[in-house]
Amino acid sequence: MSEVFPKWSNALPLKIIVFIFILAAAIVSGVTYYATPSYTRVGYQPEQPVPYDHSFHVGELGLDCRYCHSDVEKSGHANIPAASTCMSCHSMIKTDSEALEPIRASYASGDPVKWVRVHETPDYVYFNHAVHVNRGVSCVECHGKVNEMEVVSHDQSLSMGWCLECHRNPEEHIRPVDLVTDLDWVHPGGEKGQIEDGLKFVEEWKINPPQSCSGCHR
Amino acid sequence: MRYVYLIFIVGVVGTLAILGPRGSKTTRPPLEVFPDMDRMPKYHPQAESAFFADGRTDRLPVDGTVARGTYYEDEYLATGKNGEAFGKGFPIDVTNDAMARGEDRYNIYCAICHGAAGDGDSMTKKYGMLTVASLTDQRLVDYTDGQLYDVVKNGKGLMLGYADRLSVEDRWNVVLYLRALQRAANGTVEDLTPAKREELGL
């Protein structure tokens, strides 16, 4: 029989078992790393019909977020501005710019500019912008430093685990309401000061972020 | 076995090379790995609709109707006019809160062109914004409150109106704050209390 199974075949079952473990570990790590919004969504940077540069308009000119996203404080939906908002300035500045042609066309015809949506939660998530910005959650917490982005890209994963991190520890993220649109602001007292003030705001504003399913899903 | 490991390593390296690290910039729409009910056939704000002829989910109010909360019986409050003429005075309660709100709104919507002090010195002017009015000029100090309200609401000259972004109350709050800016810019030594004058050596 020794001619049928050579000597090295004795170690084969063990080698196969070891390999299966290594393969399984690789697959599990691959799925955990790639099959989550941290990989699939973060970094999404679609090309827009008009190359609106936030880093210039906000970072350089100092435009407030709410100049264009004007309903964010009173509506669940943070609106994309109408062409007339752009025309507030661009009826006077860069009036013959080719890049602005879709805006002028939209302003003249009333048809919307087809902006490409960057951030999109699943349809069973009922996120409300107004309640967050009116309770000191800055734009930067979810959207990143848009004031430094030439082209807007998806900054945070917006996964449920990510939402819950803040809902469990709101004091780490909330700030005075009038600083919500100041994307460069960090607490001058560092992490310790942030937590101290954060706890104070949580107490004063009676902040109690829901952690139950129905808080966000209905 | 050596070959199996070789193939395995090539596979791992290949996957890493193709998929790249987290956060890499891409124009490809995000892949939904477990699509479950992520996208439902329902209408979202400012989204596309296959049903309506203009292709939008957002609808305008039906002609001849008024949306709740947008009708103001007080004509002066809503238009700044009494009949045909611009009126004087504030139809809102003049309080510290109104002033603070006015300052807040002014700094969002007006300061970008007219400057934080209202004198027309602003970033957009440096980039070629034409004929930005200095709001503290005597010409505008002489405007009635109703007239200023009308400019905020409907615009004037090259300036477009802000009716879509400022509510009726907020427009009045802005006018109120504007009056404070004008007062501050056109103040004289006479406005100071004797004690203050002494302190400043005037």
Compact summary:
The complex is a heterodimer of chains A (218) and B (202). Chain A is mostly helical and 218 residues long.
Explain this structure to me?
The complex is a heterodimer of chains A (218) and B (202). With 218 residues, chain A is mainly α. In chain A, 41% of the residues lie in helices and 0% in strands. In chain A, α5 (83-90) packs across α6. Chain A is extended. Chain B has 202 residues and is mainly α. Chain B has helices spanning 2-19, 75-79, 96-109, 111-114, 123-126, 138-141, 145-154, 168-185, 194-200; strands at 81-82, 85-86, 155-156, 159-160. In chain B, α3 packs across α8 and α7 crosses α8 (168-185). The termini of chain B are far apart. Chains A and B meet through α1, α2 and α5 of A and α1, α3 and β4 of B.
Task: Draw up the topology in text.
The complex is a heterodimer of chains A (218) and B (202).
Chain A: H1 12-34, H2 37-40, H3 54-60, H4 65-68, H5 83-90, H6 101-109, H7 129-133, H8 139-143, H9 160-168, H10 190-204
Helix pairs in contact in A: 5-6
Chain B: H1 2-19, H2 75-79, E1 81-82, E2 85-86, H3 96-109, H4 111-114, H5 123-126, H6 138-141, H7 145-154, E3 155-156, E4 159-160, H8 168-185, H9 194-200
Antiparallel strand pairs in B: 1-2, 3-4
Helix pairs in contact in B: 3-8, 7-8
